Amino acid sequence: MLYSSATNNTPSLVSFTRHLIGDPSDGVGRTLFTPNEVRHAINLAYDALRDKMRRQEVGWTNKVTYLSPVAGEIHIDLPDDFVRVERLDLDVEGRDLSQTPLEDATLSKYTYSTEDQAMDAFHAEGVETTPVYFLSDQQVGLVPPANEESAGTNTLRLTYQASTPHLTNPTDEPAIPRPHHELICYRAAISLGEGRGLSEQVFDLRNGEIRRESDFLRATRNCVP
């Protein structure tokens, strides 16, 4: 099975990577690399692209979820796949944020690393009218906490960068737009080839990698697939 734009799952990425490096992908004959070696190279290449996306703040792995504060409680649990907050919309007037456009929501512009810092900032001159938040482990803390009127469903809208697991299971697919999946395979094939001294194959793959990386960088700058 070779790579197909319609099947960008783990087996197709493994098969296309083998194809690029000239390793039999049909299971016939002796292969140069074990399945684990190929998957490992693919995940290393995938990790590098994910790190680049994070540094450039590309929103391809962003998610939106709604959190429900409890009256009087400061701490609210974050999603299990939370990596970094992109924006937090605070519903201080009891509005239904699921029906409120992003540009109309009250955005907390103050982020702190501890509860004490957030509390001091909230009581500082000129800030007290704006709720603030801080992050602690897998929780977000609100200062001041929600009251009886504002607590309930859909009172916090969290846009966050989600973690993306390694490509292990057959149905796993990279969390980047499909036009850029081939770049993962090219980088993985080059890494495998370099490890075995396959200089001729690596040299031929470089041009394909450069062209696809250029497309990837252009897309990340524009933040479009």
> What share of the residues lie within helices?
25-40%
Number of helices: 5
**Overall pLDDT confidence:** 75
- State the shape: elongated
* Gyration radius, in Å: 23 Å
Please describe the biggest sheet, giving its number of strands, its sense, and whether it closes into a barrel.
Answer: 4 strands, antiparallel
In oligomeric terms, what are we looking at? Answer: single chain
Q: What number of structural domains do the residues give?
A: 2
Outline of this structure?
With 225 residues, this protein is α+β, with helices and mostly antiparallel strands. It contains 5 helices and 8 strands.
Please describe what this structure looks like.
The strands form two sheets. Strands 1-8-3-4 form a four-stranded antiparallel β-sheet, with no helix packed on it. Strands 2-7-6-5 form a four-stranded mixed β-sheet. Helices cover 36% and strands 17% of the residues. The chain folds into two domains: 104 residues, no CATH class; 86 residues, no CATH class. The protein is an alpha+beta fold. About 7% of the residues have low confidence. It contains five helices and eight strands. Helix 1 crosses helix 2, helix 2 packs across helix 4 and helix 4 packs antiparallel against helix 5. Strand 5, helix 3 and strand 6 form a beta-alpha-beta unit. The longest helix has 24 residues.
